[in-house]
Amino acid sequence: MRPAEGENQDSSVSAGHWVPVAEATANLRRATEDPAWARRLIIGIAVGFLGIFLIVPLASVFAETPPPQPSPASGRGSAPFVL
User: Fold this and answer.
1) Residue 4 domain-assigned?
2) Rounded to whole angstroms, how far apart are CA atoms 78 and 28?
3) What residues contact residue 4 under an 8 Å CB cut-off, 6+ apart?
4) Does residue 23 lie within any of the structural domains?
5) Does the residue 53 lie in any domain?
6) Is residue 81 part of a domain?
7) Phi, psi of 20 (to 5 degrees)
8) Shortest CA distance to 13 belongs to which of 1, 4, 22?
9) What is the CA radius of gyration of the chain?
10) What's the whole-number mean pLDDT along residues 47-68?
11) Mind giving me the DSSP string for 15-75?
12) How far apart are CA 31 and CA 39, in angstroms?
């Protein structure tokens, strides 16, 4: 799409309309300028996601391990034969 004769060549397309670049980028801001509560919320969601999908399954695996069996050398437990 080409700009009309009266429009500036330094422009970008936004929703099908030609908008000058300076006007299109005027409302942009850096991510570091976000409010503290928003940053904490996003970090909390990320940590919660890791907790649910990594730590909980790992804890589940370790919780399901069978208890240690007594060794035959200790004299306790069932032996296949008794002397």
Assistant:
1) no
2) 74
3) 18
4) no
5) yes
6) no
7) -60, 145
8) 1
9) 33
10) 87
11) TTEEEEHHHHTTT---GGGS-HHHHHHHHHHHHHHHIIIIIHHHHHHHHTSPPPPPPGGGT
12) 9
Question: Do residues 13 and 1 make contact, with C-beta atoms less than 8 angstroms apart?
Answer: yes
- Cα(12)–Cα(3) distance, rounded to whole angstroms? 10
Range of the domain at 35: 31-63
Question: In 3-state terms, what secondary structure has residue 13?
Answer: strand
Question: The tokens of 47 are what?
Answer: 């940590």
Of the pLDDT bands very low, low, confident and very high (cuts 50, 70, 90), residue 70 is low
pLDDT, one tens digit per residue, over 18-41 is 777 777 777 787 777 889 999 999
Contact 3, 18 (CB under 8 A): yes
Number of domains forming the structure of the chain: 1
Q: Which residue has the higher pLDDT, 65 or 71?
A: 65
Q: Which amino acid is at 35?
A: P
